[in-house]
Design brief:
There is one protein chain. The protein is an alpha/beta fold. It has two domains: 166 residues, 3-Layer(aba) Sandwich (Rossmann fold); 119 residues, UDP-galactose 4-epimerase, domain 1 (Alpha-Beta Complex), CATH 3.90.25. Helix content is 40%, strand content 18%. The chain is built from twelve helices and twelve strands. The strands form three sheets. Strands 3-2-1-4-5-6-10 form a seven-stranded parallel β-sheet, sandwiched between helices. Helix 9 crosses helix 12. It is globular, with a radius of gyration of 19 Å.
Length: 300
């Protein structure tokens, strides 16, 4: 199976641009973008952009999907269930391969799923649905990456505040979590499409490194040359706070729950302990925590 014509849905978000860039640089691929009409995202001028209404009408999807070998979805988690219609359209249009917006922590982990079913269950259901469409000729690959390292650190998702040089550390800070840089995620997706016979119909676990909150803090203090203010909190208290916020419709609780799941043992954060990574299969570079953090510090 050869995958040459690639369509990315949601290429203007946090993850989409790095996947678009990786594919665009490889002459093996012809890449285009599907964008909602309401989107204000701007793409490189040489990239073909298909714009359709936000409700993704099937007739328009079929027009855009026709002739595409693979569709990559990076749509927002809140819109996860929209992918069911995308999958149906892909089958009807003869698309060979579909990459769902699974990127992140291991949504199949039972403990993590029990805590955050609002976010995880829909993603699990999408992959289950993809499995039912294998008989129709549609293959799939789902990527488990852990937190996007660049964003997790730079935007404070994992408790680090660059502006004030403060950090929030769960428990003793030793809980380890697998994480992947955006550039490596883009490279992984691109390389997986080059070898579909080895990457189809499976979860692909990738990581740039496995770290703890304390390791990241120590590296940041060394790179910035200053001692950061540290607040140490009990993880279970933050989980309770996150659950309370979610129950009231406050989505900021999602950050607390994600951080808890990622850093608390047994919830799937350190997936490299239990799953064989596809780093070597996908020819991913070996990365260094200090070097990755140094690049972030220089951008701040």
């Amino acid at each position: 199976m050869s995958l040459n014509n690639i369509l990315i849905i949601g290429a203007g978000g946090n993850l989409g641009p790095c996947i678009l860039s990786a594919l665009d640089k490889d002459p093996h691929f012809s890449v285009s973008v599907l964008s909602r009409q309401s989107s204000t995202s701007v793409f490189p001028p040489h990239i073909k952009v298909h714009r359709i209404t936000d409700d993704y009408p099937e007739d328009k999807l079929l027009e855009v999907f026709h002739g595409q070998d693979a569709v990559i979805s990076t749509i927002a988690t809140a819109n996860t269930t929209q992918q069911l219609a995308l999958i149906d359209a892909a089958v009807k249009a003869g698309v060979k391969h579909f990459v769902p917006s699974e990127f992140g922590t291991d949504t199949r982990n039972e403990k993590g799923l029990a805590i955050f079913s609002q976010r995880f269950q829909a993603k699990v259901d999408v992959v289950k649905y993809l499995k039912t469409r294998e008989k129709d000729g549609l293959t799939w690959s789902a990527f488990v990456t852990g937190p996007f390292f660049d964003l997790a650190i730079q935007k404070g998702f994992m408790g680090y505040n660059f502006k004030e040089q403060k950090a929030v550390i769960f428990n003793d800070g030793k809980g380890r979590w697998s994480t992947t840089t955006l550039s490596s995620i883009g490279l992984a997706v691109k390389n997986a499409l080059l070898i579909p016979e080895k990457t189809a119909n499976r979860y692909l676990f990738i990581n740039s490194f496995t770290v703890s909150q304390s390791q990241v803090l120590a590296s940041l203090e060394q790179l910035t040359g200053s001692k950061w203010d540290v607040a140490r909190v009990v993880a279970e208290e933050l989980k309770a706070m996150g659950l309370a916020k979610i129950s009231k419709g406050d989505l900021s609780g999602a950050i607390l729950l994600t951080r808890y799941i990622v850093t608390t043992e047994g919830h799937g954060g350190d997936f490299a302990l239990h799953e064989e990574t596809a780093n070597e299969l996908l020819s991913l570079p070996k990365e260094d925590l200090d070097e990755a953090l140094s690049a972030i510090v220089k951008r701040e």
